[in-house]
Amino acid sequence: MSELARIEPADATGEVADLYDQLQTTIGVVPNMVRYMANSPAVVKAWMTLSGALDGGVLPAAVRHRLALTSAEYNRCTYCLSAHTFLAKNVAKLDQAEIDHARDAASDDPHTDAVLKLSDALARGRGSVADEDIKEARAAGVTDAEIAEIIANLALNVLTNYFNRFNDTPNEYPVLVTPR
């Protein structure tokens, strides 16, 4: 059961209507998640701003979608798991094996594997990680810029995971997988 009111594009006014127009222009759709976030335009702006900023960072889209899959699996968010499985396949062009690996915080690529393992360690440690986790990431070539973005992506993903879990957001993406 949804906890927040759903604001449809046809019913949006003022700042929410403007944000919906921006989303239509940039991504071509107003996701169901945003229709609930719109109860507070500040939340929609926060999600859009952080997402947009990280799109211009050092971590490529294929890695960011893997990070989102790792987080969605850990946080048991079916909405985000479905969305990022769809995007990983259709936008980032990841194969099914890499998508499946990402759900387990792993990758066949050693650098990406280190990125996912560090993010998973951060999530499980609630922001704290063992020195060994950092050493392993650095040994795989993970840079300071990447570490900063791993933390920021984790924060973004926790926002969407928790938001959608709380709200039980109806999924507009094919539910191909559910959390294990």
From TrEMBL:
Residues annotated as domain Carboxymuconolactone decarboxylase-like: 41-118
InterPro entries the record matches: AhpD-like, CMD-like
Record-given protein name: Carboxymuconolactone decarboxylase family protein
Top-level taxon: Bacteria
Coiled coil (residue ranges): none
